[in-house]
Amino acid sequence: MRIKSVEVIPLNIPLVEPFEIAIGKFSFAENVLIKVQLEDGTVGYGEVSSSGIITGDIQSTAIDIVKYISPALVGESIERYRYLIKKLRSIIKFHPGTFAGLENAILDAYTNYIGVPLYKFLGGASYEIESDVTLSITTPEKATETALSYFEKGYHIFKLKVGKDFDEDLKRVLAVSEAVPDCEIRVDANQGYTPKEAVRFINKLYSKDVNITLFEQPVYWKDIQGLKFVTDHSPVPVAADETVFTATDAFNVARERVVDVINIKLAKCGGVLEALDIIAVAKASGLELMIGCMVESNIGLAPSVHLACGTGEFSYIDLDSYLFLKELPLKGGFEVDGPRLIVKNIKKGLGIEESKKEK
Amino acid sequence: MRIKSVEVIPLNIPLVEPFEIAIGKFSFAENVLIKVQLEDGTVGYGEVSSSGIITGDIQSTAIDIVKYISPALVGESIERYRYLIKKLRSIIKFHPGTFAGLENAILDAYTNYIGVPLYKFLGGASYEIESDVTLSITTPEKATETALSYFEKGYHIFKLKVGKDFDEDLKRVLAVSEAVPDCEIRVDANQGYTPKEAVRFINKLYSKDVNITLFEQPVYWKDIQGLKFVTDHSPVPVAADETVFTATDAFNVARERVVDVINIKLAKCGGVLEALDIIAVAKASGLELMIGCMVESNIGLAPSVHLACGTGEFSYIDLDSYLFLKELPLKGGFEVDGPRLIVKNIKKGLGIEESKKEK
């Protein structure tokens, strides 16, 4: 079945509140919706998140790139999805977030066309996953209040953004840890520490009996030896986020065991196929896997939820960005029950439903 | 859709002529057919080749293992194929050839059930591949005669078994090379040389202007440093066959760049899913890929043909074992036009057709 059209539509989604990480602050999601339509009317959706500070993709470049390369898709058979994805990559380099949106739309269209839900297409290993919830950099009081409100909704795993101010970070993590004592705490420095600060930070937390399970991207993404230093001196697993985009990056950190865990985000690696390659490298080398997200709606999250459920290979799930959006442009992709993300009732593709508004 | 039954049937297929490699000689294929049937009548086929000297799988153990673990499959949903395959592996270790047969039957049943040919399920990157043809250890005259007969049928790539007698091997390769001068020559020592013999052998051939493109498994499979020595001193790419079974093995050879090429065989790695993982590791680390086979019929070869076509990732194709069998128990899987193996007309699954005999 041939591809009839590729549309690209700006999606401006206001955030519930501004989101701050060590490398910047932003107040709403300027995303992009990609809609691939086949000649028989089958549709596939993908979303590009504006994650310029990480991947170089912003709303306007995403629109430019999709318009530029979509003629290479129109008229081609959706059944040759791997060839199509290779073809797109032979046209233009970088822009992994945009490629992820395009590939997700292609895979959604294809699995809708063959009538198989994506998580089953990927192996159907499980029907649901449990996500953490992310707490941004704020006062200990505000962070504790937010943590308690999520705890009441059933969340047991909290990921705290740190990496901005050593002492303030410590206070905030300790405050949250005391407020929700039986919960799992993860910290994410988003490159904000030096290697030695990072080692001091994680050992300090560990010595305070915080139930800390993961230390994500403590140092500068290019500082491979610094990252290895932290891993070698951390009592808890260290994860690479910004350091690992592709399977080759994963191979290079695995080769020297620079980290214990790789955080896959489709917007970094460019889509599900490359993500499967990273999973393979991690499994082959004994590393654990995390799956994360950019600030994206259920449309962009759905392929990650299906990937995690379908393969069953992820030890750490961080797919919570839909919580921070005031509205969702289209429904579907997965069901939500507190921290549980459930794909069991998806009948085909990603299960994205077109709302009346969008039509 | 649930699995109704798993049958295991001995397949004794006489070889056209006895086949000799450096580590042994055999005169017919004692294989096994696995038939997975779903509750709606959908069928999937897999074949186990008796490759005990490489993988430890022989006909009787394959039958034992399938009977032992098939209760874990019956009643399960075929749509959870990745879960099923993990479940089987959680029951018993090793036996990769038997697992490959089982997994191939599961994937054939699943892709038949969803109505998608396996090569498209894997991405539909291409519709056909070109295989080499293997010439066993014999006199230079006989090898030349065989090469010429295949050349007349359109073959342009010849893989010569070597590794038994340095001087005889050299004479035979030179004789074939002179008889089919514009063709590509590959040599496979099946672990038969010492590292220094291997280096002398490949450089001697290269100095004689033989159009040599690949040197497969020159030394003992466990001799990683010996293999690296050959790779570092060979003017042509060196491939690991027996040295690499799984994605972890691939990672370990890639880490030190022990070889240039990895030869994937489903019977070694245990099936298509692990093969995809090896492909990922090889791509991530810049290694090339070869796909090979045991002595198996079209039933066992079909998943490899679909994998190679579907992914488009293989630089060296060695899927010729069906040529050495006097009869094929079931038809289908792919079409043959000389060295070309074609999947274009497969409508669903592997396209294996049940013959009247088998019914």
Automatic annotation (TrEMBL), chains A, B:
Superkingdom, natural source: Archaea
Cofactor(s) demanded: Mg(2+)
Keyword Magnesium: yes
A molecular-function term among this protein's GO annotations: metal ion binding
Domain Mandelate racemase/muconate lactonizing enzyme C-terminal stretches: 140-237
Keyword terms: Isomerase, Magnesium, Metal-binding
Coiled coil: none
Keyword Magnesium appears in the UniProt entry: yes
InterPro entries: Dipeptide_epimerase (IPR034603), Enolase-like_C_sf (IPR036849), Enolase-like_N (IPR029017), Enolase_C-like (IPR029065), Mandelate_racemase_C (IPR013342), Mandelate_racemase_N_dom (IPR013341)
Family according to the record: Belongs to the mandelate racemase/muconate lactonizing enzyme family.
Descriptive protein name: Mandelate racemase/muconate lactonizing protein
Organism: Archaeoglobus profundus (strain DSM 5631 / JCM 9629 / NBRC 100127 / Av18)
